Automatic annotation (TrEMBL):
Name of this chain's protein: Pentatricopeptide repeat protein
One Pfam family recorded for the sequence: PPR_2
UniProt KW keywords: Repeat
Entries under PROSITE patterns matching the protein: PPR
Taxonomic source organism: Heracleum sosnowskyi
Record bears the keyword Transmembrane helix: no
Lineage top rank: taxon: Eukaryota
Cross-referenced NCBIfam families: PPR
Annotated PPR repeat ranges: 9-43, 44-79, 80-114, 115-149, 186-220, 221-255, 256-290, 291-325, 326-360, 361-395
Similarity section: Belongs to the PPR family. P subfamily.
Length: 425
C-alpha cells in the first residue's frame, strides 16, 4: 500500500499491529508502532491496548507492566477501562494478583471507573488464592456501586464456597443470582454444584441440581453425570454408579476415559476385579483407548489381591500394545511384587525403568530398598541406597522404620548397622 502510494492511517496500522500480536509476533507490532511515529500518526488507546494484550499473550508480563507504566508516566495516552482490564486480567493470569489489585484500586485516580469485567477478574483471582471472604466483600462493593455481576462473577465464588463446605452461603448466593439478579446458571456453574455435592456425599442435593438443570433447559453433560457417578462410587453404591453409565448412553452422551476410570477404580476398591476388567474391556466398544491412569488402577487392584504375577503379565501385555507406562506404573508393580515376595522379579523390573526413558524417583528407590530388606538382601539394599543418595534422594520414614525393626532383632549385623547409618545420614 505504501509503495503504491495508497493512503494509510492510524486505523490501518492498528489493524496490522493487532494481526502481528495475534500471530505471536509482538516484535513486528512494535516495529509498526515505531513506523506510525515516523509517519506523524498518533496511536490511540486501542493501539496501545492491543500491544499490551500482545505482550501478555506471550507471557511478557514484566514488559507489559513497564509499557503500561510508561503510558501513564509520560501521558502518551489516557488508558480507558479496556486498557486497565487487559492489564489486570493479564496480571491475574500470570500470578501477580497483588499488583493487579493495586492497579484495580488505582483506576479511580486515573479517572477510570472499574466495570463488571474488572471486578470479575479480581474476584476470580482472589478465589483462586482461597480468599473467598475478600471476594465476597468485593462482590458486595460492586453491588453497592450498581455494577452488575454476571455468571462469571458468581461461578468462582460458588466454587470456592463449595470447596469450603459453606453450603448455606452457597444457597444464598445461588438464590441471589437466579431470583434477584435474574442470571441463569450455565452448565459450568451447575457442574460445580453437582461435583461439590457429590464429593461431599450429598447425592440427593446433586440429583436435585440435575433436575433443576433439566427444568431450565441446560442439558447435563458428561462432566455432570461423571461427578454424580463418582459420588455413588465413593459411597459404595456400585449398582447406581453402573446405572449412570446406561443413563449417559441413553442421553446420547459419549463416556470418556475418566468416566470409565472412576468405575474401574471403584470396583478395584471393592476387590471386584472381574467386573473392573469387564468395564475396562468395554472401553474399546466406545472407541476409547485406556490411559496410563486406568492401567495403573488395574495394576494396583491386582497387586492388592496378591496377584502380582498376573499384574506383571498384564503390564507386559499392555506394553506390547504400545501403551507407555509412567513412574507410578513401575512403583505400583514394584510395591506389589515386593509385598508378595517376588523381589528378584522386582529388581529385574527396576533395572528396566531407565531403558524406557524414565528416571526412578525417591519413592521408587525406597520401595525396592524395602523389598530387599524384607527379603534379607542386605547387600543389594546397600548398593541401592548408595545409588539413591548419588541421585540426591534419601530414605523415607517407612524405610527407616523397617531398618529399625530389623536392627531390634539383629542388632549385631554389621551390614544392617552400616545401612541404617547411611540412611540416617
Amino acid at each position: 500500500m505504501c509503495t503504491l502510494s495508497i493512503p494509510v492511517n492510524i486505523f490501518t496500522f492498528s489493524i496490522a499491529i493487532n494481526c502481528c500480536c495475534h500471530s505471536n509476533r509482538v516484535d513486528y507490532a512494535f516495529s509498526l508502532l515505531a513506523t506510525t511515529f515516523k509517519r506523524g500518526f498518533v496511536p490511540d488507546v486501542v493501539t496501545y491496548t492491543t500491544l499490551i494484550r500482545g505482550l501478555l499473550s506471550q507471557n511478557k508480563s514484566q514488559e507489559a507492566r513497564l509499557f503500561f507504566a510508561n503510558l501513564i508516566k509520560f501521558r502518551q495516552v489516557q488508558p480507558d477501562v479496556v486498557t486497565f482490564n487487559t492489564m489486570i486480567d493479564g496480571l491475574c493470569k500470570t500470578g501477580h494478583a497483588d499488583m493487579a489489585f493495586w492497579l484495580f484500586r488505582s483506576m479511580e485516580k486515573c479517572d477510570c471507573e472499574p466495570d463488571t469485567v474488572t471486578y470479575t477478574a479480581i474476584i476470580n483471582s482472589l478465589c483462586k488464592c482461597g480468599l473467598v471472604d475478600d471476594a465476597l466483600n468485593l462482590h458486595s462493593e460492586m453491588m453497592e456501586k450498581c455494577i452488575l455481576p454476571n455468571i462469571w462473577t458468581y461461578s468462582p465464588i460458588i466454587q470456592v464456597l463449595c470447596s469450603l463446605k459453606r453450603w448455606e452461603e452457597v444457597g444464598l448466593l445461588l438464590n441471589q443470582m437466579i431470583h434477584d439478579m435474574k442470571i441463569s446458571p450455565n452448565v459450568h456453574t451447575f457442574n460445580i454444584l453437582v461435583d461439590a455435592y457429590s464429593k461431599s456425599g450429598k447425592l440427593d442435593d446433586a440429583k436435585h441440581i440435575i433436575q433443576i438443570m433439566n427444568e431450565r433447559g441446560e442439558n447435563p453433560d458428561i462432566v455432570t453425570y461423571t461427578s454424580l457417578m463418582h459420588g455413588y462410587c465413593s459411597k459404595g453404591q456400585m449398582d447406581e454408579a453402573l446405572a449412570m453409565l446406561s443413563t449417559i448412553r441413553s442421553k446420547k452422551i459419549m463416556p470418556d476415559c475418566y468416566t470409565y476410570s472412576i468405575l474401574v477404580n471403584a470396583y478395584c476398591r471393592e476387590l471386584k476385579l472381574d467386573i473392573a476388567m469387564d468395564i475396562y474391556r468395554n472401553m474399546a466398544s466406545d472407541g476409547l483407548s485406556p490411559t496410563v491412569v486406568t492401567h495403573n488402577i488395574l495394576l494396583h487392584g491386582l497387586c492388592q489381591l496378591g496377584k502380582s504375577m498376573e499384574a506383571l503379565t498384564f503390564f507386559y501385555k499392555i506394553q506390547g500394545l504400545g501403551h507407555k507406562p509412567n513412574i507410578v506404573t513401575y512403583e505400583t508393580l514394584l510395591g506389589g511384587l515386593c509385598k508378595n515376595h517376588y523381589v528378584d522379579k522386582a529388581l529385574s523390573l527396576f533395572r528396566t525403568i531407565e531403558c524406557n526413558g524414565l528416571i526412578p524417583e525417591s519413592d521408587t528407590y525406597n520401595i525396592i530398598i524395602r523389598g530387599c530388606l524384607w527379603s534379607k538382601k542386605y547387600d543389594g539394599a546397600c548398593k541401592l541406597v548408595d545409588k539413591m543418595v548419588d541421585c540426591g534422594f534419601s530414605s523415607d520414614a517407612a524405610t527407616t522404620s523397617v531398618l529399625r525393626h530389623l536392627l531390634l532383632s539383629k542388632a549385631q549385623d554389621p551390614t544392617l548397622v552400616a545401612l541404617y547409618q547411611k540412611c540416617l545420614h
